[in-house]
Amino acid sequence: xxxxxxxxxxxxxxxxxxxxxxxxxxxxxxxxxxxxxxxxxxxxxxxxxxxxxxxxxxxxxxxxxxxxxxxxxxxxxxxxxxxxxxxxxxxxxxxxxxxxxxxxxxxxxxxxxxxxxxxxxxxxxxxxxxxxxxxxxxxxxxxxxxxxxxxxxxxxxxxxxxxxxxxxxxxxxxxxxxxxxxxxxxxxxxxxxxxxxxxxxxxxxxxxxxxxxxxxxxxxxxxxxxxxxxxxxxxxxxxxxxxxxxxxxxxxxxxxxxxxxxxxxxxxxxxxxxxxxxxxxxxxxxxxx
Length: 289
Hints:
Blueprint: H1 4-18, E1 23-28, H2 41-45, E2 50-56, E3 59-64, E4 68-73, E5 79-86, E6 89-91, E7 101-107, E8 112-116, E9 123-128, H3 152-159, H4 166-170, H5 181-191, H6 211-229, E10 272-276, E11 279-283
Helix pairs in contact: 1-6, 3-6, 5-6
């Protein structure tokens, strides 16, 4: 499933084409994705201007000029591409099966935004903009990891007296919104923290962040920002809006590298893989304590 860097990469690719543009036409090629499309979905979008394109956790939110917002989730395999119109014909940025192109947004600038989703786990909703933060999909979400709200003091409050593993806490969307398995593994490795450590072990008895937790608050942001700069990670289906693959997977220090030498340890230890809460965790027992 695309994680925060992949969704943010898509947002940044779509924003120049979509913001301050009017939706001239909408083509919906099936009745549903993961869920049925909202009633009169296409008709309600035609003529609307897109004011902003935001991201909350792993969701894209297009705020419209009628005080409604188009909510888009990529699911497991969803992607967007931008097609440019030239002399009445569209240049297809990449060769995809037409049967998997489920929604097409024709914009007032002549560009067309295509949503492609082979597995159809993505979805689109229309929600009043003022009600987004109280909606069931958003009301439970924690802080944005790239915001100023995520710092060592916040993590200390969230982890204090917790016996849950730090890896599981990073994946808890009620605490931090958008961090997935890949980037939790990478952030913990960069911070030198074992994924097996209990969250409470990283907080002093007085409730202050230990040195390791101070490092983690920085490595979370650092890993996510590096991934965004690299266009995200293309392990299965992720593509940028121009059709290019993300390439952060070539910078993985631990994820997917079971039994391979650890770069940080000078190849003295190999990367281990364990299962935590049903998810694979990759780490180095030598440099992560």
